[in-house]
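Attaching the record inline, Q. Sequence:
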Amino acid sequence: MTAAGVWGTSIYLIDLAVKVIALGLVPKNRRPGTAMAWLLAIFLIPGVGLVGYLLLGQTRLDRRRHERQRALNEEVTRYVAGLPKTPHPQSISQVDAATIELNERLGSLPATTGNRIELIADYGASIEAMTAAVDRAEDHVDVQFYITACDQVTEPFFDALDRATARGVRVRLLLDHLGSRGIPAWRRLVRRLDASDIDWRRLLPIDPLRGQLRRPDLRNHRKLLVVDGRVAFMGSQNLIEPGYNKPKNHKAGREWVELTALIEGPLVRALNVVFASDWNTETGELLTSELAAPVPPAGDVTGQIVPSGPGVDAENNLRAFTSLIYAARERISITSPYFVPDESLLYAVTTAARRGVEVELFVSEGKDQFMVYHAQRSYYEALLRAGVRIYLYPKPAVLHAKHFSIDDEVAVLGSSNMDMRSFALNYEVSLMLFDGDPVAQMRKVEDGYRAISRQLLLEEWLARPKAAAYVDNVLRLTAALQ
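Structure, as predicted:
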């Protein structure tokens, strides 16, 4: 056999061995659809598919992070076990109580009563409210955002952080490394933070020289602020101006539309736990004194914080969302910038619509992320045929808010999209509210969306260009590559 023949035979045998091994390894602990997508990539794109799987196919983080996360989870579990059990108000249905129990089993954080919630839909008003809260801080300020930038909109907030440190308040700040580094104002932010007394850290950093290596597309996607354990903010909004400091967005008039919750009451302590978990993972410091501080009641709302991600029990946000959707009797309103559901969530939504529940979905008419936008569109036909009403929020705005409401009983908002990335890969945090007032507030927000949006009809959708439908269907496959 010639040298060329030997070389060709060797390549064939190596390729065959890789495919045989992949058949046994890739499907382990994965949904069949996800496993099939990775196998197709490995089989049909030799070399490239394998490299992609090795880089992006594993959600494991380094051992140090897992050890710290496990130790903190045990600490939180012991702390929660020592809290007095309070009965749920009579307004909480049996179905909602079962969901609360599920969340507690998966995320270790109990529901609490005595909270006050204010939903803030105005982008600038949200940052102004956070700035005012920081200016009232007396002991500590904990800041955590997926994307953080110092610009003309957020600079007053950073000025408030500096004023807080000047009067002896301890300020800690966490930001996702890659999420924030991609923003044009990154270097300016680093210079400002390094020159300040703010104790700041990068979340999930990638630094090969320091041995910090991981799957590059894992993200800590949480957005929250806790001040003195008394008041907190959380939702979908990043700490950046609404055009994300990008000239192309400013030129197009493209701004992000968000929803933020201002929280007072015992739920603030639960958000303290979430921040403490991520702070401990990055620094090794356990903020036990802050976790133990009591938080007085401030209202009459019952709520629950649901953290999710690789360090929490598997896909607890997905389990909670589907449980609530299956329990709906009259109405479901979903707002999601990236609605790319797995099979279980898609079946929950379409089943609800087919059994007579009024289901509506608010999504952006325009796109800010090409692949996710087209993957999302591939689900529209199934949703429309089931009776789901789809409303397109007018471009150039990007409807980035992430929330849904069930009947007149439950409102959910936070950082979690309704896509497979948020369910399986990202660190997220969601807020579930089980009383009427937050639902009424969310209804007003949804009514505002509906008033300016255009309803997408099935006939219009089926008449779209075949080339566009082809792109949608192809990119649907990429959503399963987890």
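Residues 3-25 form the longest helix (23 residues). The two ends are 42 Å apart (CA to CA).

More tomorrow.
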